[in-house]
Amino acid sequence: MLRPQLVALVTLIGSVGVTNAWFRVSCTDPLVQERLDPIISPGVNPSNHVHTISGGSNFNPTYTYNNLRASSCTNCLVAQACLQRPIPAMIMLTASTGFEQLLDPKTKLFEPVPDGGLLVYYQNRGDGDVSNGGSGLKAFPPGLKMITGDPKRRTKKFPIGLGTQDELRERAIQWSCLRFTVGLPGYDDNGTGFPTTDCEGGLNARLHLPACWDGVNLDSADHVSHTAFLSGLDNGVCPTGFVYMMKLFFEVTWSVDNFSGRWNATTDKWPFVYSHGDPTGFGWHGDFQNGWDTTALQNAIDQCNNPNDQTGSGVTEACKFLTVNTADFANKCKIAPVVNEAINGTLTKLPGCNPLQFGPQDATIFTAATCPQ
Ligand SMILES: *[C@@H]1O[C@H](CO)[C@@H](O)[C@H](O)[C@H]1NC(C)=O
Ligand SMILES: *[C@@H]1O[C@H](CO)[C@@H](O)[C@H](O)[C@H]1NC(C)=O
Ligand SMILES: *[C@@H]1O[C@H](CO)[C@@H](O)[C@H](O)[C@H]1NC(C)=O
Ligand SMILES: *[C@@H]1O[C@H](CO)[C@@H](O)[C@H](O)[C@H]1NC(C)=O
């Protein structure tokens, strides 16, 4: 089922500063939610905290590009189909984002917060794009890994607009408190961490991935330095020698409004935390490992952004290089968690060792061996 938030957000995007996505891919019900983190902690099972995973069904603690390409389905709507549907192109990505939980002020128990699924925006941005006079954007190279955000973060460290890569990385994570359902204006974070009021229309969180690649390395020791942000985050130039890629942007809206009767914004603190023990919001993060058919994506970039037909307005169905599934169909693509633990229902603690750490100093990442609890 296409959840209502996915539909509603399309009209909200203008109000939260997301414009001109070239095309958008919905990943509705997640592929799986579990404590795996194959980019940061390859092979580690279980990893530190719960993630929500979207993409190809061959996701596992150590998957490769070729594993992903051999997936039988994906929960994203532009996809190689599963369940014997004969589809020519195999197209998939794997993305993981945070998992949000309510800490009930009265019961002190954690409960998962539902979300409206992941929206992945494919944006043509930066001086490398032909619309800006550049020579064209490149598809992600096979197996490229990228991250944005840092689960250790509990505060903002740089003045907005400084323009260094560290500051751009910080600015790449944004949220809005949506209140349109009660006729109130929503508000954006501006680097302030989680909201302070009820968000009657949900909590909308967004994340820019780097659009520049060093042209050589698919990953790096810090998972960051082989990539870079455009100088203006959403536009501008790549650092010298970097390749201009299509730009990815993730959006998730958590249905925090489902819990509005459970807390009082006057007397209780914002009760929602991320699964990495983060009550501030600054540690939200998202990862991407490329599983696209590079040729299909490059063809789409080069030939489907035509202002004279529907491909120019991002209609994925109009682009012959993309295969579009229905939400009903994509939602059947699920895999069993390999980590055997409860993450849904009411919990006395967050899965793994993730005590709440309020900052402002960076949080400590605990392992089972160093866990203070
Ligand atoms: C964020 O900044 C915008 C633009 O300066 C401003 O209109 C808005 O009120 C700010 N929001 C908050 C929560 O401070
Ligand atoms: C959340 O709230 C929406 C709207 O009130 C409702 O349709 C949906 O079923 C709720 N979801 C859960 C998991 O409670
Ligand atoms: C929230 O708390 C304030 C202060 O105690 C109180 O005036 C208000 O009625 C409460 N709101 C609800 C919905 O209970
Ligand atoms: C937890 O619940 C969500 C939403 O109901 C579901 O998509 C997910 O598969 C569940 N995860 C587990 C591990 O049961």
From TrEMBL:
One Pfam short name: DUF1996
Key words, A-Z: Signal
Signal peptide: 1-21
Chain coiled-coil ranges: none
Domain DUF1996, chain residue ranges per copy: 37-292
InterPro entries xref list: DUF1996
Protein name (Swiss-Prot/TrEMBL): DUF1996 domain-containing protein
Provenance organism: Mycena metata
